[in-house]
């Protein structure tokens, strides 16, 4: 009997040690691997900047290495579908903007944003700016609209499109101002700004991170923001609402999603990494300098934001009879 107990006790201990080792190995393999953040836009825009800053903060805090990969095209459909079809192992994540919930209302897709993904965290919100060249004759938003009324269809406005929240904001401006302005779609904010600098379009909509250098040097001039309030770092730039168009309000955000069926333990680990990064004073200060308002809603709370936006954008598109060519 004693011999039997002496044999069983070491075996039991060995089993416990092995189980513990396996658990540690699984946790270590997740923390040690490189996570890909798929950006469905060209590089250089606000979602890209947000993702890279957060990824760097996670790495600096002892988390896993994260790399941002750009998969642009088809109004964010290409990159989004790529992640929808990726293995649900936490290694491939999607960076989203409001286009994530706009596209399903205007185009048939091979994925469903509400069922084919799991919400991780919102990163930040950012205010879009309407800008013209520094040598443009338009010094105010009112100047721009007056010229659109005087020369219907001759002014051009470039931003991300087609079928994006940026285009919806543009269509809202057109309808509110009763102005005929030609929409020029681009795959990202950076290409739109490059076209504006080359005098290929009259005006553009982009974010502060894309515009900051050109605004500081005077190459570009900000006429207004479609956000509800003025941008703190640009206090002299009025809102479109202040310009007399009360129904024009659009403020965009960036967030992170994982493929559906990603294990709950992996989702929770990802949420902790992103949430902790967003709370750091260093990252929040950097966000503020770029005009970003830090996010931090994660899991079901971020999922509720996405569901609300899905319903609200759908209602706006239907009620305003917006066309997204």
Q: What's the rounded overall pLDDT mean? A: 88
Give the overall shape, derived from the CA principal axes: globular
> Count the strands?
11
Helix/strand class: alpha/beta
The largest sheet, given as strand count, sense and whether it forms a barrel, is:
6 strands, mixed
Helix content: 40-55%
Strands ordered across the widest β-sheet: 2-1-3-10-4-11
What is the CATH topology classification name of the largest domain? D-Maltodextrin-Binding Protein, domain 2
Give a quick summary of the entry.
With 325 residues, the protein is of the alpha/beta class.
Describe this structure in words.
This protein is an alpha/beta fold and 325 residues long. The protein folds into two domains: 36-125 and 251-319, D-Maltodextrin-Binding Protein, domain 2 (3-Layer(aba) Sandwich); 129-225, D-Maltodextrin-Binding Protein, domain 2 (3-Layer(aba) Sandwich), CATH 3.40.190. It is 45% helix and 18% strand. The protein contains eleven helices and eleven strands. Strands 2-1-3-10-4-11 form a six-stranded mixed beta sheet, sandwiched between helices. It has a five-stranded mixed beta sheet with strand order 7-6-8-5-9, sandwiched between helices. Strand 6 (156-160), helix 6 and strand 7 form a beta-alpha-beta unit. Helix 2 (46-60) crosses helix 9 (264-279). The termini are far apart. The relative contact order is 0.18.
């Amino acid at each position: 009997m004693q011999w039997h107990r002496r044999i069983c006790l070491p075996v039991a201990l060995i089993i416990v040690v092995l189980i513990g080792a396996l658990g540690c190995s699984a946790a270590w393999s997740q923390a040690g691997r490189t996570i890909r953040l798929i950006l469905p836009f060209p590089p250089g825009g606000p979602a890209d900047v947000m993702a890279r800053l957060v990824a760097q903060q996670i790495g600096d805090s002892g988390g896993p290495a994260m790399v941002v990969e750009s998969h642009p095209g088809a109004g964010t459909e290409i990159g989004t579908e790529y992640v929808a079809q990726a293995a649900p192992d936490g290694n491939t994540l999607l960076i989203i903007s409001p286009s994530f919930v706009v596209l399903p209302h205007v185009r048939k897709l091979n994925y469903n944003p509400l069922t084919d993904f799991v919400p991780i965290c919102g990163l930040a919100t950012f205010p879009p700016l309407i800008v013209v060249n520094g040598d443009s004759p338009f010094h105010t938003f009112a100047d721009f609209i007056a010229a659109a009324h005087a020369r219907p269809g001759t002014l051009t406005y470039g931003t991300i499109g087609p079928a994006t929240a940026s285009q919806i904001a543009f269509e809202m401006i057109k309808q509110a101002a009763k102005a005929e302005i030609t929409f020029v779609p681009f795959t990202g904010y950076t290409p739109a700004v490059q076209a504006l600098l080359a005098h290929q379009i009259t005006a553009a909509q982009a974010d502060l991170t894309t515009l900051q250098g050109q605004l500081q040097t005077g190459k570009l001039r900000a006429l207004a923001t479609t956000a509800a309030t003025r941008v703190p770092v640009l206090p002299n730039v009025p809102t479109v609402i202040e310009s007399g168009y009360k129904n024009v309000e659009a403020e965009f955000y960036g967030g992170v999603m994982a493929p559906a069926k990603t294990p709950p333990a992996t989702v929770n680990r990802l949420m902790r990494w992103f949430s902790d990064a967003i709370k750091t004073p260093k990252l929040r200060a950097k966000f503020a300098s770029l005009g970003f308002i830090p996010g931090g809603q994660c899991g079901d709370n971020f999922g509720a934001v996405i569901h609300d936006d899905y319903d609200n954008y759908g209602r706006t598109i239907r009620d305003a009879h917006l066309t997204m060519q």
